[in-house]
Amino acid sequence: MNDLLRYQGLYGEQQLPMVSDFIHLEPLQDRSKIYAWEIEEHIHTDLVQLFLISSGSGTLYSEKQEVSLNAPCTVTVPANVLHGFHFEPHITGHVMTLSVSFYDTLLPNKPDLTRQLGQLACISFTERPERFAEFDYWKDKIQQEIFDNAPEKLLALKTYFEMLYLELYREKFRTRTADLLTNNRNLAYFQQFQELIRQHAQDLPSIKTFAKKLGITQTHLNRVCHTVAGTSALKVVQEFTIAEAKKYLLNTSYSIAEVAYFLNFNDPAYFSRLFKNRVGVAPGEFRKG
């Protein structure tokens, strides 16, 4: 598939704010109504989403598969997974969107849990609406925290999201879920590539080595990345590195040279040039806000 509809930001948007931990919450109906309740199949390259559908119905589409959505229900959408929707008018609910860099900080010592939740899936609560109300509770806590400026805001948000995803994980074992697995080889390879990047974050190997681990050629890996992300394999790795750099710059007092060395750059000047080229501002300016 060479014509993937991809968004760097939310549906219909190609930009995200210059932050390392992007968290966004909006009513489901707000954006859906703009697009006449039809959301074309697309991928988000670096975003994870959770839909909480409170009332109404619709259909989830992915690679010629479809699942009926009847409220109350939840839909988990990992990064780089094709998904689209048809919503009936007057549907209500909320969509939570997280950057992959923030999502990866949740429950870091529970890889089985995050792997289970890293699937395009729908969980129905039609037989237990009172259980869905618990997810609404955590959503309300998150919404309040987003708009407040209380101390340790990020810590509170992380805690609330961890509780919400933990409850989702438990629910997958209590009730029937509809999981939609990708049949698209390009998407599958790209997802595996991103997982390898995360696994080798402290000592990133060459693109040739990544390709070998995937069982494909370097040329094939570059073709996969161009198809899914619209860029080369090297730039996919660089995007990951820049995301890590943003975390250090915003959340620590390390010097720019120290951040560069932590990320295995031998030349801090080269790191600064790469950062400015990818982000648009120098590391020092980014840190200042």
Automatic annotation (TrEMBL):
Keywords: DNA-binding, Transcription, Transcription regulation. InterPro entries: AraC-bd, Cupin_HpaA-like_N, Homeodomain-like_sf, HTH_AraC, RmlC-like_jellyroll, RmlC_Cupin_sf, Tscrpt_reg_AraC-type_HTH. PROSITE patterns: HTH_ARAC_FAMILY_2. Pfam families: AraC_binding, HTH_18. SMART domains: HTH_ARAC. GO terms for molecular function: DNA-binding transcription factor activity; sequence-specific DNA binding. PANTHER family: ARAC-FAMILY TRANSCRIPTIONAL REGULATOR, TRANSCRIPTIONAL REGULATORY PROTEIN. This is Uncharacterized protein.
